[in-house]
Amino acid sequence: MGITGYFQLQWKCLVVVALRLLFLVPAGVPARSGDSYLKDNITVRQGDSAVLKCNVDNKVSRVAWLNRTTILFTGNEKWSLDPRVVLLNTAVTEYSIKILNVNLYDEGPYVCSILTNKKPDSTKVHLIVQVPARIVNISTDVSVNEGSNVSLVCLAIGRPEPTILWKFRSSKENRIITEGEYVEMTGITKDMSGSYDCITSNDISPPDVRTVQVTVNYPPVISRAQSTGTAVGQKGVLWCEASAVPLADFHWYKGERRLLNGFNGVKIENKGKQSMLTFFNVSEEDYGNYTCVAMNTLGITNAIIILYGPGAIHDMNNAALSPTSSFLLLTLVLTLSVLSKF
Length: 342
Hints:
By secondary structure, this protein is mainly β. 11% of the residues lie in helices and 52% in strands. It is built from 2 helices and 26 strands. Strand 15 and strand 16 form a beta hairpin. The protein is rod-shaped. The N and C termini lie far apart (85 Å). Mean pLDDT is 81; it is low at 1-38 and 316-342.
């Protein structure tokens, strides 16, 4: 720093000291909104504009705006280098400033210092900046096996301090499950698979919502196995439906023989969690027990389904009963036990 710069710095320091002495402005004003010396609180939302008003009269000889240790304006002369701070030309009895695009750094005490007939006075204002609640970090989508433990986290910021709620959404229900940043699930089941919404709010703006998708993998469970009675020469369809994540692969067997699509006039059609075995022209040889096998990477299950003739006796579940049915059922169970090991 040269000699000229040194004297300029000393001169500015002297001006600041003189202004403080002139207007009796304290050197460091606390930034707490509840202190008794504050005349007004002004609350604005981050990004909005704030107008700080100061009433004066024709007896005022000197006036200035200060923020903590910074002089913003003295009279019409701007001292602040911040382009967002402007002096409003509203009325001769008002000496007000406007702060554009308010941010958190603008929060704190402001003082309008007035000298009237050599008597100092001041208007003190505390600017409070509110920040809309916003989610800044959240867990990614999760895929786990049934029985695992799952932890979800959602972090949010805002002023006032935002609240966080977790909502669970699935095809069966929609409900709030907990309040706070964390969700802890132990021994998760397939019924807990779905969308988990993190909702944060502090009433400054509409809630901020982010979603975590939780996928629970589980082995196949056959939910539908429909036996069918069909006359010779007619079309017959056997149905098999299995819930599973990932989706199950289906195989059809008659006895130990696996049925292939298009072989011996049968069609196998798999759509999502359903499988159909279609006979376009049922013959006497087609009657009997069929096994639907559903499997994925987590397990295997099966169900016995019967194609029977119009005169066969069947129970309430449409399972045909015959003198040989118990023997055939036992054979198929033993066969599938061997198959499931591969």
